[in-house]
Amino acid sequence: MANANIRVRFCPSPTGNPHVGLVRTALFNWAFARHNQGTMVFRIEDTDAARDSEESYEQLLDSLKWLGLDWDEGPEVGGPHAPYRQSQRMDIYKDVAEKLLAGGYAYHCFCTAVELEARRDAARLAGKPSGYDGTCRNLSAERIERYRAEGRDSIVRFKMPDEPITFTDLVRGELTFTPDNVPDYGIVRANGAPLYTLVNPVDDALMEITHVLRGEDLLSSTPRQIALYKALIELGVAKEIPSFGHLPYVMGEGNKKLSKRDPEASLNLYRERGFLREGLLNYLSLLGWSFSADEDIFTIEQMVSKFDIADVNANPARFDLKKAESINADHIRMLDVKTFAEACEPWLKAPHANWAPEDFDRAAWEAIAPHAQTRMTVLSEITANVDFLFLPEPVFDQPSWDKAMKGEPAALLTTAREKLVDADWSDPESLKNAVLAAGEAHGLKLGKAQAPVRVAVTGRTVGLPLFESMEILGKEKSLTRIDAALAKLAA
């Protein structure tokens, strides 16, 4: 049953190119919100000036728009909780930090990096947890004054409760974290800059987020945030603790988490190769969720209609590029021919096309498009598959030439040309019969007979249906290319 009160958020940092794991997180949040007629909040976590960039921010917006993952509140849309960029909300975090200090929920920590490391080493040697040991938790006013007089900097730490924290993860069930595993943690740097550990839950609280669906790598920070939420509720900053669901890792090669450095991790790669948004989203949705036991191909609308966070699998999901390509190919076949032809347009122009713009023949393209559609895995493949139609002569792939021109190719091509001269060029079946007859004259089956003809006409051993291609190219051009191949063989 839909719940219109559900509010989720997608809050990436604008660093580098968008990652497919990040997109999977956005997709699950978006589908959950749309399934429940809830609200999708898009927020930018840009407090790390050293790593964040405006270029990455623009890429994030562009990527979400391309994928069709729209948002109800956020940049370019606005909303009741603006601004939606953390860099524009610093006064809010400062105010909350001061309230936490005044309420006794947080304290100033004057420990130096050298002191912290020495105590961590000692704890490790003693076989004890190496997290912060609470040294500054109950400093006297005199000790604080002395540290300040010494010129020591201080960070602000949140005071964790001394009892276990238990919560029910929407994906993983009930989880408990003991106090020794969740020590007091920093929320404000010595220079006054707020840390992720503060700004993220404060924004979720003020934006009344009801469900936090995020990657498994953030699971260890959840008990900290729950403790902070309880403090924020007591301070009147938050209304309730949201429900948490931690999505499974996306794994790459060698059972390792797919990282930004992995080539297949970049969303831009899939756009550049000509994945359809529908195909890519279909595949990404299967990384931790399934539509049904026997159905992998579905539309975005069908996914939204069935999506439930309770159905997400906690086990890591393996990224399989071949499966992604196969699913994309299915979505290409699902398009009507006109939409397919329009989707291919970017790859029929510079810088992808290697033919002159004036040599592009739209009628020939529209005629070949239905045949191309049944063979494409990604749209970028269209350029090499149809270039023979628009180039003055085919670009010979030497390995293909060597593979096809075995035995006595000149004799076969000569016979094929003679048969083709008398064929009906408005009927691909007639062209096929001509080449079949030429093959029989030389003791060859159709597959062997058509290989040199295909290379002569298109330059390649594989590609679109040969006889339909020859019909569209036309009798004159096709025979001229067979003549050119014969001359090449003679030379």
From TrEMBL:
Protein localization: Cytoplasm
The UniProt record lists the keyword Ion transport: no
Keyword Aminoacyl-tRNA synthetase part of the UniProt annotation: yes
Organism: Streptomyces exfoliatus
NCBIfam families: gltX_bact
The EC number(s) this enzyme carries: 6.1.1.17
GO molecular function, one term: glutamate-tRNA ligase activity
Primary gene name: gltX
Pfam families: Anticodon_2, tRNA-synt_1c
Enzyme category, top tier: ligase
Ranges spanned by the short sequence motif 'KMSKS' region, renumbered to the chain: 257-261
Listed name of the protein: Glutamate--tRNA ligase
Family in the record: Belongs to the class-I aminoacyl-tRNA synthetase family. Glutamate--tRNA ligase type 1 subfamily.
Subcellular location, principal: cytoplasm
Reactions catalysed: tRNA(Glu) + L-glutamate + ATP = L-glutamyl-tRNA(Glu) + AMP + diphosphate
Motif 'HIGH' region: chain residues: 12-22
Annotated keywords: Aminoacyl-tRNA synthetase, ATP-binding, Cytoplasm, Ligase, Nucleotide-binding, Protein biosynthesis
Residue ranges of domain Aminoacyl-tRNA synthetase class I anticodon-binding in the record: 340-486
Binding-site residues, ATP: 260
Functional summary from the UniProt entry: Catalyzes the attachment of glutamate to tRNA(Glu) in a two-step reaction: glutamate is first activated by ATP to form Glu-AMP and then transferred to the acceptor end of tRNA(Glu).
Glutamyl/glutaminyl-tRNA synthetase class Ib catalytic domain segment(s): 6-323
CDD domains: GluRS_core
InterPro entries: aa-tRNA-synth_I_cd-bd, aa-tRNA-synth_I_codon-bd_sub2, aa_tRNA-synth_I_cd-bd_sf, Glu-tRNA-ligase_bac/mito, Glu/Gln-tRNA-synth, Glu/Gln-tRNA-synth_Ib_cat-dom, GluQ/Sye, GluRS_core
SUPFAM superfamilies according to UniProt: An anticodon-binding domain of class I aminoacyl-tRNA synthetases, Nucleotidylyl transferase
HAMAP family associated with the record: Glu_tRNA_synth_type1 (MF_00022)
